[in-house]
Amino acid sequence: MDDPNFRKPSTDHTGPVTAGHMQSSLAHSNYSRTGLTTLKISPAFYFDVEIEGAPSDLRDAVAQSQYYLENDKLGRLVVGRGANDTTAFATAMTLSKLTLSLASRAAVEPISSEAVKPLGTRSEEYALNIPADGSAATLTANSTLGLYRGLTTFNQLFYYYGGPFRGLGLDTSRHYYPVSDIQRTLDAMSWVKINTFHWHITDSQSFPLEVAQYPELAINGAYSPQEVYTASDVQYIVKYAAARGIDVMMEIDTPGHTAIMAAAYPEYVACFEASPWAFFSGEPPAGQLRFALPEVTNFTASLLTNIAKTLPSHYFSTGGDEINKNCYADDYPTQQQLKRTGMTLNGALDTFTQTTHGALIVQGKTPVVWEEMALDWNITLSNETIVMVWISSADAAAVVEKGFRIIQAPSDYFYLDSGAGEWLGDNPTGSSGPFRTWSEAYTFDPLANLTEAQYELVLGGEQILWSEQSGPQNVDPIVWPRAASSAEIFWSGKQPTGAALNVTEALPRLHDVRYRMVQRGINAIPLQPQWCAFRPDACDMYAWFGT
Amino acid sequence: MDDPNFRKPSTDHTGPVTAGHMQSSLAHSNYSRTGLTTLKISPAFYFDVEIEGAPSDLRDAVAQSQYYLENDKLGRLVVGRGANDTTAFATAMTLSKLTLSLASRAAVEPISSEAVKPLGTRSEEYALNIPADGSAATLTANSTLGLYRGLTTFNQLFYYYGGPFRGLGLDTSRHYYPVSDIQRTLDAMSWVKINTFHWHITDSQSFPLEVAQYPELAINGAYSPQEVYTASDVQYIVKYAAARGIDVMMEIDTPGHTAIMAAAYPEYVACFEASPWAFFSGEPPAGQLRFALPEVTNFTASLLTNIAKTLPSHYFSTGGDEINKNCYADDYPTQQQLKRTGMTLNGALDTFTQTTHGALIVQGKTPVVWEEMALDWNITLSNETIVMVWISSADAAAVVEKGFRIIQAPSDYFYLDSGAGEWLGDNPTGSSGPFRTWSEAYTFDPLANLTEAQYELVLGGEQILWSEQSGPQNVDPIVWPRAASSAEIFWSGKQPTGAALNVTEALPRLHDVRYRMVQRGINAIPLQPQWCAFRPDACDMYAWFGT
């Protein structure tokens, strides 16, 4: 099952349900009592089979039910896919088990034996009783066949109510963050119920991840031997996160954002440290994987597989943003390969992506990519691929138009690094985007410009800290409490378009969150003068004007 | 003497000087050897009078010389007032004392007796010997009158070479900073040779300063009893700063920025918490001293005096920014008083300012004010008043045009709080100025738009952190290493207009400063990805294009 804190599986349309199907000959005589009370199915839900010598096909049927429960992702067939059930969920009790038993004196026979008995002698009726408070749910019948029919009904009563993706992204390549800083960040994430740590662990500047099969990457690519996440560091962080309800979605950005891999595999990287860097790359140093080469594709697939299989998450990001074509225009190995195969650069990227994604899918991972992979290149992505929107909130519509599920990480609302100004060494008057305040982020409408039918494609969103100008020194104040904004947007469910959350209502609560964080050792920035924090609305601009 | 680290008094045009004036009758027979070696006069310089039974008028003359040395502020009469002597100063030795003695067997008589002896019998000649290395400087003569003449020459050899004001401003009212945070900030200031801590200690939101004579101000005006700087805290901070070469220039902002004084003295404050605040004040809460009332003027003069006299600095800021006239338009006590006296609001402010400044001047303090006092109001400020430019760098010219000395703290270059976005509670799309990067600050030209004759009026400058959205949690990353920019601008001397400092040259050094700060426990922000920090110029935008 997914991280239990990420999914919120639930029965819906259950409640005090007693369904007795009595079928004899062609006459149907049913008795049932149903209800509309919502119940949540516990992540630890199990079927308690209290039948001595239960036949193996009954056990199989139970296992199948468990599988359906964990893997069916059927949303409610209503507008918004159940997003309006938030209130019902808030008070819902939890169903922890269903006890299966046979009536006393019933014979314990395999389903397969019961199923072939002559009509009139089969016992298919069952009693499924699920009290509204979720306690003591039972399924009883006179035969294993009756239990099987009852299980089938049970398996039709639950709906997937996916907890939205509520993430925080952190880039640990431009600057390294010691494990303790990540732990502290995970603690704070858990306090605002963020459920995904999007770990952009490597980039062009450093490769701080120890990979058992490819040790040279970190040995040659990390800033220093101390600035490495060892395999055990990663496992520690994953477990630390999981214990706090947080799934770790790692990203190994490819084929761009990989320059430093040249330190270990120079033959795999084009235009490494080419000059002027701005022609070849979004930022220094230049350098991208030679994805047209089969050996690079195979290496990358193997690298991603080796990393992904150590991680429990269902999700793994392969990046795919900002691939610079100039890098390959004069790259001899790339051009030679394209000429030899008659492929275009686009075609080569398609092959590369399908190969690397295929390897991840084999590992049970859902590939996650940045928006350019869906919008800028003509390549085939698996329908399951999740696309992260970053360049602009305006791009979400184009991505969902292609049918992909998206994670909203738009730079114009959610980039935590924005506003720190130009960092290039000789451009003192250069500008960068403005600082995105908590309240600006809070006004983000995740469903803007989408049709109702597309709403279900919005999985959630995240704020993200790119670390060109950040490190352990400022991670707390630059992230907190701002990152609580998206956490609340996606916890509160998708808002109908146009109904932005109310910043005035949220501010006192966010002050509370922030002061509590400070008490717990997080250096979260103040949002207003302390005078204001103690006086809700006294520091509003418009409230007192009545506008 | 001023804080020895603030002033750098110096002899100039001294060096190995031996000047013997032998005057007899009308015949002048002089012997002198002069040099151009620059010497610095030690802050601890003293006259060592090795004369048994030295007469009191010689002692007075020596005291007078000491006074001149400490108080003459004559700059060199050259373009730039000696700003180009930086190189000479870098290698200059220090003169620590001048030993005065009489030739053996000379009679020890008062100057006043020697001075009235008949011509031909007076001994006015002396020998003043100041070696180029500053050691063993001597003044010898045959009479006290000769010594007096020699002292006079000595008193003409030194020039004031004021070390520029290199400050850091911190607002401790919008949020309180524990003493330990201020200590840590002072440590970092000392590492970049900042010489003034401009302590904006109180404002409208809280009054965290314990004043012995007015304890209610802190008791009722601090955020909490724990968020108070006690008298001993202040003394501790002042001494801690002084030991690190830092003068503490405190600011009690008046008559605006005083709302919270109403918590102790409601009758002294107009429009307290009036609504809508934006009509009455730059930010909430509204409230300003009723400066037209004599009792408020007297109270303020007494308050400032009581605070200032506990502080060793020669400088004390009375603020004076952002006085809002609407606050007084319907304020009954103010209007009644203006009517009774026939005064205008401007006239009342003039009286208030002259009274409060007069009280400070009596305490030996030089008043410092914000630019509005010089530009927006028609009031009489003492010529000694120092004016801080903040609204815009463009305002400096207008202030020096009025003959005032200025400290450059322009918000468009030096405001460290800029870029944090709108903090009002209901204005999520509101903007504030951009973040001022270290390099943008570094391009500030302190002499822009001034004439050469006005250059001497620029005392220096400071970067400043207003604390609406800052506190102990982010003081390190929001201040450091950015505040090093102004420190270097003013340490390096006033640059000729147009010759901005070179950011490309400075960046590697600033990286070094920043990484060293981090080693010492200051959470200074990274300026670039670490990859860049290790590779000077590799992350320049234009360098590789050759533009």
From TrEMBL, chains A, B:
Pfam families: Glyco_hydro_20, Glycohydro_20b2. Keywords: Glycoprotein, Glycosidase, Hydrolase, Signal. The keyword Secreted does not apply. The active site is at E322. Residues 120-157 form the Beta-hexosaminidase eukaryotic type N-terminal domain. Belongs to the glycosyl hydrolase 20 family. Residues 164-493 form the Glycoside hydrolase family 20 catalytic domain. Residues 1-23 are annotated as: Disordered. Residues 1-11 have a biased composition (Basic and acidic residues). It comes from Suillus fuscotomentosus. One of its GO terms (biological process) is glycosaminoglycan metabolic process. GO terms for molecular function: beta-N-acetylhexosaminidase activity. It catalyses: Hydrolysis of terminal non-reducing N-acetyl-D-hexosamine residues in N-acetyl-beta-D-hexosaminides. GO terms for cellular component: membrane. Its EC number is 3.2.1.52. InterPro entries: Beta_hexosaminidase_sua/sub (IPR025705), GH (IPR017853), Glyco_hydro_20_cat (IPR015883), Hex-like_dom2 (IPR029018), HEX_eukaryotic_N (IPR029019). This is beta-N-acetylhexosaminidase.
